[in-house]
Amino acid sequence: MTAPNGAQAAPAQPGPAPDLLYSEAEDDLRAAVRSLLTDRGGPAAVLADLESGRTHDTGLWRSLAVGMGTAGLLVPEKLGGQGASAREAAVVLEELGRAMAPVPYLTSAVVAVTALLGCETDRPEVAGPLAALAEGRSVGVLAVPLPTAPGTLPEPAVRADADGTLSGEVTGVADAAAADVLLVPADGPYGYALYAVDTTADGVRTEPATALDLTRVPARVTLDRAAGRLLAGQDTARAAVTGALLAGAGLLASEQLGIAEWCLSETVRHTAQRTQFGRPVGSFQALKHRMAALWLEVASARAAARNAADALATGSPDARVAVAVAQAYCAPVAVRAAEECIQLHGGIGMTWEHPAHLFLKRAKADEIALGTPGRHREALAELVELPAP
Amino acid sequence: MTTEETTEAGRLDAEGLRHRTADLLAAHPPATTAPLDFLRARFDAGLAWVHFPRGLGGLDAPRALQAVVDAELEAAGAPDNNPRRIGIGLGMAAPTILRFGTDEQKKRFLRPLWTGEEVWCQLFSEPGAGSDLAALATRAVRDGNHWTVDGQKVWTSGAHQARWAILIARTDPELPKHRGITYFVCDMTDPGVEVRPLRQITGEAEFNEVFLTGVRIPDAHRLGEVGEGWKVAQTTLMNERVAIGGARLPREGGMIGVAAQAWRERPEARTHDLHQRLLRHWVDAEVARLTGERLRQQLAKGQPGPEGSGMKLAFARLAQQISGWEVEFLADEGLLYDDWTLRRPEGVDFTGREAGYRYLRAKGNSIEGGTSEVLLNIVAERVLGLPPEPRTDKDVAWKDLPR
């Protein structure tokens, strides 16, 4: 190597080794969530339900959020939650991804809850909605477009007036149709600020879009002088929203892991049974190598997703790197797994009756959600000091 | 006697091993003891590989406690046994001899193997038996108390330095190919053994061809039963793959660190395309590191996961992609090569040489120790449980197979 020209030091090493395994309590939680989802029929039932035009399974949400208390995993007990951590919420999301469950867990129990936890939780304006979300009594969503990446906070599309009313329009707000309360970033008398708006209030309109992903539908939210309650202003509001997006992106990796796992295991099951040319198609090397390569990616995605969940749970200074790595890696793995699932199922994979298409649609939407892999690599370039030309 | 044994057993925790290590250092101060004498004393004290049996370099202690001994000895500046030079002996021959060897074989071979006085090599692969190792054609014919061996082996690392080899040879061509194989220890100084360097793509000769002509092996140097050689070889091969996939790395450890540092030091060579690809490789390398870390955490909890089978695949692909990126990044300098001299290195040094060497040598990562294609088959069949490929050769006598 020639003499360094403006050489930079290598980026700091991560702290103590993260715990990348599952604890016994996490295994128990997984078993309980999986059993509930299996009882309710899994992906096939989701498919049947969608035929009826419903985008959310409110019965399932009640069992999951209220019955099992999973909505409050991230919330301390004194604030009405379970006092667990991102590690446990990640396990729930793995199972929800595997079952393709149409419930607002990521949007309400992770993103909205984290946004509220970033505000001053001893104020009743914050503590009230936080406890309601934690107990599953209400569903909240953060009113930003689903593709928003952590670290690229857009200027708010909503304006707050001096009388506390909000006006403006936000598109692509996931699960808004299921929400009772919107957490709305807005510009106004307090600068950048975060408000709570009830979806039943006058001047609030949510219009679900016709969406690629049938199980997590984005909506257009229009506010016309709607009454808002101030949650936080200025730096607190920005930090709360950024932290919420970071937690959402980091835990989305676990949902993506669950999607990839279902796609791989269904593909293995199918190709081991389906015969052509006088033998199971899964015995042909050309196919089994594709599934083995996918298995390696899924095993790797698990390490990346666990690392992100652990970094979020421990408040590690490495969390931003861990989340960017997890999203840059896991999002394409979920998409590839779903694409391979369709291809290796042959014709049946192309049909509406087989649930594979639900996974492809969610996986592709998840790749865009909370920052594309490209956005997360750009973030990494800065975080680990590999500057663009 | 009973009292002494109780005391011994009571000392096999970390603290007990620290005491034993301190005793060894006191009796043989590294500064004034010849390295070989020190290594012999360490073996005799049972501190070579603590999980091995007493009298064979160990103390029947938990394997994890070896780290305690190693750390104490390193801190005291004790000589090491150059594990790179004797890697095949340590990683492949020793576990196989321990599991299948007779008492005489263990006593004869393990001590000089561990001290490095005797280097070992491995005579498995042949020109016609690589991935399909059981297709091997080297013959061993019984002659009273001896076997006479004829054939050709290839890809033999370190054969030119080796005193002994582990060897598999066909002893019954009438049986199907996996059943007619027997496992031997071959004396590399036998006049019938001829070693020729095999020059590689990098210009170096890590490997050799080995020609075996009328080599006489005493039956006492057979490992395991006649015809059971394939079973014995499985032990050897499992240990090989663990050795290839097992290193622990810090973030940006290994080849990605070299590439990242080159990027930081040469802003003038940066392009957008190279930046995009570097970031992808960085993510892949970081995830491979985490996957290895997760595997080690599973092993430490006594839950071995199947991830081990995949780590070698990931390592090979990463090494090839990153080294290819680096040559391209270096542009006009990437057109150069550091040295084509035929050298005989003691091992692969990926970070000690320049980009062109890394690029060329990494091509071997997806071939040596099981090709990536064979490993994908193993993952598909043993981890995912997919149906095996139909085998037309399984029940046919080896002599009747087309060649």
TrEMBL record, chain A:
Residue span of region Disordered:
1-21
The cross-references to Pfam families, in alphabetical order and at most eight, read: Acyl-CoA_dh_1 (PF00441), Acyl-CoA_dh_N (PF02771)
Q: InterPro entries, from UniProt?
A: Acyl-CoA_Oxase/DH_mid-dom_sf, AcylCo_DH-like_C, AcylCo_DH/oxidase_C, AcylCoA_DH/ox_N, AcylCoA_DH/ox_N_sf, AcylCoA_DH/oxidase_NM_dom_sf
- Record keywords, A-Z: FAD, Flavoprotein, Oxidoreductase
Domain spans labelled Acyl-CoA dehydrogenase/oxidase N-terminal: 23-111
Q: What cofactor does this protein call for?
A: FAD
Q: Which residues form the Acyl-CoA dehydrogenase/oxidase C-terminal domain?
A: 241-382
The annotated regions of Low complexity compositional bias extend over: 1-12
Q: Which GO terms describe its molecular function?
A: acyl-CoA dehydrogenase activity; flavin adenine dinucleotide binding
For this chain, the family text in UniProt reads: Belongs to the acyl-CoA dehydrogenase family.
Protein name per its UniProtKB record: Acyl-CoA dehydrogenase
Its source organism is Streptomyces chrestomyceticus JCM 4735
* Source organism phylogeny: Bacteria, Bacillati, Actinomycetota, Actinomycetes, Kitasatosporales
UniProtKB/TrEMBL annotation, chain B:
- SUPFAM superfamilies from the xrefs? Acyl-CoA dehydrogenase C-terminal domain-like, Acyl-CoA dehydrogenase NM domain-like
**GO MF entry, a single one:** flavin adenine dinucleotide binding
Q: Per UniProt, which keywords does this protein have? A: FAD, Flavoprotein, Oxidoreductase
Tell me if Flavoprotein is a UniProt keyword of this record.
yes
Question: Can you name a GO cellular component term?
Answer: plasma membrane
**Acyl-CoA dehydrogenase/oxidase N-terminal domain: from which residue to which, for each copy?**
33-117
- Cross-referenced InterPro entries, in alphabetical order? Acyl-CoA_Oxase/DH_mid-dom, Acyl-CoA_Oxase/DH_mid-dom_sf, AcylCo_DH-like_C, AcylCo_DH/oxidase_C, AcylCoA_DH/ox_N, AcylCoA_DH/ox_N_sf, AcylCoA_DH/oxidase_NM_dom_sf, Mycobact_Acyl-CoA_DH
A Pfam family recorded for this sequence = Acyl-CoA_dh_M
The answer to whether the entry has keyword Iron is no
Q: Name the domain of life this protein comes from.
A: Bacteria
**What sequence ranges are listed for the domain Acyl-CoA dehydrogenase/oxidase C-terminal?**
227-384
Which cofactors, if any, are listed as required?
FAD
Q: Where in this chain does the entry annotate a coiled-coil region?
A: none
UniProt domain Acyl-CoA oxidase/dehydrogenase middle: residue ranges: 121-205
Q: Which family does it belong to?
A: Belongs to the acyl-CoA dehydrogenase family.
Identify this protein by name: Acyl-CoA dehydrogenase
Q: Which organism is it from?
A: Streptomyces chrestomyceticus JCM 4735
Q: What is the lineage of its organism?
A: Bacteria, Bacillati, Actinomycetota, Actinomycetes, Kitasatosporales
